[in-house]
Amino acid sequence: MSEKDERTDREDLEEIDLEEEESISVTSFIFEWANAFMVALIVVVLLLTFVFRQVTVSGSSMTDTLSDKDRLIISSFMYKPQYGDIVVISHGENYSDPIIKRVIATEGQSLSINYETGEVSVDGVILEEKYIKGKTIRLRNSLEIPEKIPEGYVFVMGDNREGSLDSRSTDIGLIPVENIIGKAELRIYPLSKFGSVYDS
Fold first, then answer.
1. What pLDDT does residue 108 have?
2. Domain membership flag for residue 48
3. Structural domain for 76, as ranges
4. 158 burial level (CB within 10 Å; 0-12, 13-18, 19+)
5. What is the CATH number of the domain that holds 72?
6. Is 76 a catalytic residue?
7. Number of domains in the chain
8. What is the C-alpha to C-alpha distance for residues 146 and 82, in angstroms, rounded to an integer?
9. What is the DSSP secondary structure assignment for residue 5, as one 8-state letter?
10. Does residue 35 lie in a domain region?
11. Is the confidence at residue 155, as pLDDT, over 90?
């Protein structure tokens, strides 16, 4: 074989090697991108399953804080109910659909409601409830509030005090903490009201 033929063969081999390297590089890039996408997708799914969820408000029991058809992001990971939290509660014995209310008192606290003045007191202190609409009235099948909220339970009410069926009635009653799906954190719809649900 002549020197010219050998040089041509080497050049052909170099071109083939270069094409193979480029092919491997493209394949590697696609694989890495697909792998990163799958990891991100798994993380999002896990977050939405175990940490954050989306719920849609149904009804008017939380007006003016929340409105019917508002869409919320709720958090559930390692959640412990606190006064003022807006929570989503799974269905109970007397109601079939999840409900959304505000936590007013938690386990171990004493709660009293003066239905004449509409004042709500927790541990002897009258609450400043700037978020409520209307007056806190007595509901049908009125619940006899225990001296202290039992362990593992919370007392909840809707912000629309004259239009909410809540812990004031035996139809809802005290809520087992285990029935709380999560705490409302963010309103994502309508976009004009996007933001924290605790700003108002």
1. 97
2. no
3. 57-189
4. buried
5. 2.10.109.10
6. no
7. 1
8. 19
9. H
10. no
11. yes
Look at residue 123 and tell me if it is in a domain.
Answer: yes
User: Minimum mean pLDDT among 5-14, 53-62, 83-92, 93-102: which range?
Assistant: 5-14
Q: For residue 160, give the 3-state DSSP assignment.
A: strand
Maximum CA extent, the chain: 112
* pTM for the structure as a whole: 0.75
Tokens (6 digits) for 53 = 């969820």
Spell out where 40-198 has E strands. 52-56, 71-75, 86-89, 99-106, 111-114, 119-122, 125-126, 153-157, 175-176, 180-189, 195-196
* Calpha distance 179→167 (Å, rounded): 14
Looking at the DSSP assignment, which residues form a beta bridge with residue 101? 87
Q: Is 3 exposed, middle or buried (0-12, 13-18, 19+ CB in 10 A)?
A: exposed
Q: Which of 69, 96, 101, 200 is catalytic?
A: 101
For residue range 91-146, what is the model confidence (pLDDT) as tens digits?
777 777 899 999 999 999 999 999 999 999 999 999 999 999 999 999 999 999 99
SS3 label, residue 43: helix
| Catalytic residue of the set 4, 61, 148, 200 | 61
| Residue 101 among the catalytic residues | yes
Asked if residue 18 is part of any domain, the answer here is no
pLDDT digits (tens, 9 = 90+) for 26-44: 677 676 776 766 655 555 5
Q: Which residues, listed in sequence order, are joined to residue 72 by a DSSP beta bridge? A: 55, 187
